[in-house]
Amino acid sequence: MSDAPAVREPLGRRFTAHLTATGLANLGDGVLQTGVPLYALTLTRSPGQIALLTAAAWLPWLVLGLAAGVVVDRRDRKYTQVVGLAARALLLAVAVHLVATGRMTMPVLTVIVLAYGVTDVFVDLAGSALVPDLVPRSRLEAANGRTLAAQQVMAAFVGGPIAGAVLAFGAGWVFGIPAGLAVAALVLISTRIPGSYKHAQAEKRRATAEIREGVGFLVRHPVLRPLLVAGSVMNMASTGYFAVFVLWVVGPGSRVGLEPAHYPLVIAVLAVGAVLGSVAAEPLGRRIPEVRLLLGCWTLNAALLVVPVLVPTVPALTVTAFFLGFLNTNGNVISQSMRQRMVAPGMLGRVGGAGRTLAFGLMPVGALLGGFVAEQWGLPAVFVGATALSLAAVAYPIAVVRQHMVAELELPAVVRETAAVS
Fold first, then answer.
1. What is the largest CA-CA distance in the chain?
2. Packing angle of the helix pair 47-74, 362-377 (nearest 10 deg)
3. Distance between CA 101 and CA 199 in Å, rounded?
4. Long-range contacts of 252-259 (CB under 8 A, 24+ apart)
């Protein structure tokens, strides 16, 4: 028996191009995610209206997630990304025009955020389903970790501060920069990821039958079902929490009292933790059983949500943001890699769409609830309630999911159904 260490397979040039395009697109996401709420504060201080922006961003997952999953499985996943990014660039160009002509209002801004969310559904689902087609099975944790790291670095660490800076030059930049980045990402995907990424269907079936197949797979799965339910409830609670968090932190009427230009720095700290969490996922997964690691991250993440209420200071907020980023992203890498090993390649779009319909679809509900609770009982009630709900949610998979179940349900390695690279 040879004692030579196993050689790690390379991730490859196609994945590098995919990772770069993901970073560019998420840089645009970050500019918008931070810049739009700060811009909205110049239009209103209503918690309900501010929370409505977050609800609009996530509502498309509830409405379109299932159908988008079918599209991703039926169509070329690379082409789906390109079309989605092109539509995004056009939408943001319209937003720049509205800002420049002084016709941007809260209702119009909400519609733009809603339409942007539609592009996110297709771009994100296609991108996630594409990863197993680009990298060796043995490197899924590494590929997912690097993808999530790129998303966090660009969205929060880079995009957030850029948003705070460009607002000083005019709100049009908050929309114009992401428009240009979307164009750059679609050009990179089109030119640097050769080949077709469409998984052939054995037979033509109705879309409703394919949707039922994806939903049924999740409902019957003893590992993915409890993880999905718990993760979805935690997403709902977290979204309600962060939909009004800016009011707790920013401005003279807030509890913390940060200046708008300083708020992106707090988001950047969260991104630093997220990057380290994504990088740590692969080595930690080799030392700690992944189910224990995932549920431990979720539990600690839920408990930390109450800290900004108990200690509303900048140092406490900074430390909490770091660990929230680390734990959340580490858990995301583990759960996504587990799903990719337990779901057949030709079903990743439908299963991902079905899962995100619930996981992301509850997020606008959480945002609206957060705004309502804040209006009625104040911001601390939102934060404490989100903490309690998150802790209750994670108790479900802790009770029923075991590591041996994951090993038993993993699929054998398969040959990816991709066309030859030209």
1. 73
2. 170
3. 45
4. 253/45, 255/312, 255/379, 256/308, 256/312, 256/313, 256/314, 256/317, 258/314
* pTM of the complete model beyond 0.85: no
Estimate to the nearest angstrom the gap between the alpha carbon of 200 and the chain centroid.
28
What is the predicted pLDDT for the residue at 286? 83
List pLDDT tens digits, range 384-394: 999 999 999 99
Token pair 């509890």 is found at 255
Rounded CA-CA distance 203/200 in Å is 9
Residue 364: the pLDDT is 81
What is the CATH number that goes with domain 13-196+207-409? Answer: 1.20.1250.20
Rounded mean pLDDT, 247-263: 80
pLDDT value, residue 365: 87
Sequential DSSP letters for 172-185: HHHHHHHHHHHHHH
- Using CA atoms, how far apart are residues 182 and 330, in angstroms rounded to an integer? 27
What b/e string do you get for 126-144 counting C-beta neighbours within 10 Å, with b at 16 or more? bbbbbbbbbbbeebbbbbb
- Over the stretch 347-401, which tens digit does the pLDDT of each residue have? 878 888 888 888 887 888 888 899 899 989 999 999 999 999 999 999 999 999 9
Q: What share of the chain is helix, strand, coil (3-state, %, to 5)?
A: 80, 0, 20
Kindly report which listed range (108-112, 156-160, 198-202, 302-306) carries the lowest average pLDDT score.
Answer: 198-202
| Model confidence at 418: pLDDT above 50 | no
CB 155 within 8 A of CB 27: yes
For the chain, domain boundaries: 13-196+207-409
Specify the 3-state DSSP secondary structure of 186. helix
- Contact present, 133 and 345 (Cβ < 8 Å): yes
Q: Which DSSP symbol is given to 313? A: S
CB neighbour list of residue 372: distance below 8 Å, 6 or more residues apart: 48
Mean pLDDT of 177-204: 85
Nearest to 8 by CA among 282, 192, 407, 415: 282
- Cα distances (angstroms) measured from residue 9 to each of 6, 130, 142, 197, 398: 9, 18, 11, 21, 33
User: Helix axis angle, 290-304 relative to 224-243, nearest 10°?
Assistant: 20
